[in-house]
Amino acid sequence: MAETPMSPTSKAVGPEVASVISPSGKGDRPEPFEGRSLEIGCCCCNPFKGTVQTLLDKLPDMQFKTIAITGCTTGTGYTLAMMAARQRARIICLNRPSSRSEAALANLKALGADVYHVDCDLMSFKSVRSAAPKIMEIVGSDGLDVLALNAGIMHLPDIVTEDKFDMQMQVNQLSHFLLTKLLWSALNEAANQRGEARVVVHGSAAMNFDGHTGIACACCPHTRGLMPRFFEKHENGGLGGDGCCSSLTMTCCFAGKTMTRYQQSKLANFVYAMALADKINAAGSKVKAAVVHPGVAITNLVTNGLSGGKGGNKDAGAKNYIPEFVVPIITNVLMQSTEMGTMPIATASMVSDVQNGDYYGPGYPCWPITFWGPARKRTPEHICVNWHTQKQKDIVWAKCEEAIGESFTITAGGEGGAPAVALADVPEAKPTAAMERA
Questions:
Q1: What is the distance of C-alpha 197 from the center of its chain?
Q2: Which residue of 123, 138, 311, 315 has the smallest Cβ count within 10 Å?
Q3: pTM (predicted TM-score)
C-alpha cells in the first residue's frame, strides 16, 4: 500500500519497534522469519525456495496503517500478523478469548508490535456486534486500512450455532459479512484519508470440490453453485447430518455431507468478495475488495480438519476422518509451509498494486487443483463460470442480509456502519475485559 503522511491523530510506533528501525524507516526491522525454512514443510524438494523472502522484501512500510485480522492465534492469520508487525502496522487481533490468543499477543508484543486484542467469537452475532464498537474506538478518526477476514473452520458436524446457523457458514461467511458491514464507515474513513482501504476475504480451493463426488468439479458446467438453504436457520442435523458417500476413509476429507457444508461456505466467500467489489465500483468507494486462497498449507485448520486434531476444530466437534499418525506424513510430503500459504493474503493485504476485485492464490500443479506455489493474480475465469454470475452474487448478498437481519448498503462516505469514535490518545485508553492492549 502506498506510504502516506501521518495524520494528526495517528499514533507513533512503540519504543520497542523504534529501537530497531532507523530514522529513515528503511533500516533493520524485526525479523520473525529469520533462519526458518519458509517454503515447503519438511519436504527435501523445495522448488519454491526464496519466494517468501521475495514477498517480504516487496512489502511496503505499513507504519500509521491499521490492519484487523480475524482468527490470528495460529496459522495464516498469525503469520499475517507477524508480517504486518514486521512492516510496522498497527494490528488488531480478533479472536475468541483463549490461552492461544494470549500467547499470540505475547509473541507479537515481543516483536515490538503495536497490537490490540478484541474478543470476537464468530460463532455469535452478539459477539461480533459487541466487538465492532471496540474496534472503532481503537482506530478512532484514522479509520481502518485493512480488514483481513482470515478466520475459518472446517469438517465440523451438522450442529448449529446459538444463532441457529451451520457453524461453518456462520464463522466462515455470515459473521464476516456482518463485521464488514459494522466496520464499513471505518474502512471508508481510511480510504478517503489515504487513498484506499481493503477488505480481504480468505477463501479456499475447497470451493472447487463437489461434496458429492469428492473431486474437483469446477470445470464441469453442471456443478452446483450456492444453495440458499445452507445460509438459513435450522436445527441440528438439518443439513443432512454427517457421513461420507465413499467407503474409502481418506476420501471423506473431500466428499460427503460435511464437505458439502464447508464447500458452500468457501464458495460463499469467493462470490461475496466479487459481489462486494461490484458494489464498491457502483458506489464509487475507494475501498477495495480482494479474495485469496492459500493452497494446501500446514495449519491447524487443515490438520485438525483431517484428524479431528486438538483445540479449535476439535473443541467444536471436528470429525475424525484420518488416523492422526497419518497426518504428519501427509503434511510433510504434500503441503507447503504456513508462510507459503500466507503469501496470498499478505499480498492482497499489503502489496501496493492490488486492485478492487483481485483474486490471488497459488497456481501449481494446474487449474482447478492449485495447491502449491507463490501467490499469483488469478482471474474469475479460473473458477467455474456458473459461480460468479449475477444470480450467485444476488444469492449471497440477500441470504447474508437475511441471516444478520440487516441490510448492508455500500456507500462511499462514512455511512453504513457503527459511528466512529475519535480518541485523543488511544494507546493510553484504559482497556476493558474484552479489549486488551498487549
A1: 15
A2: 315
A3: 0.80
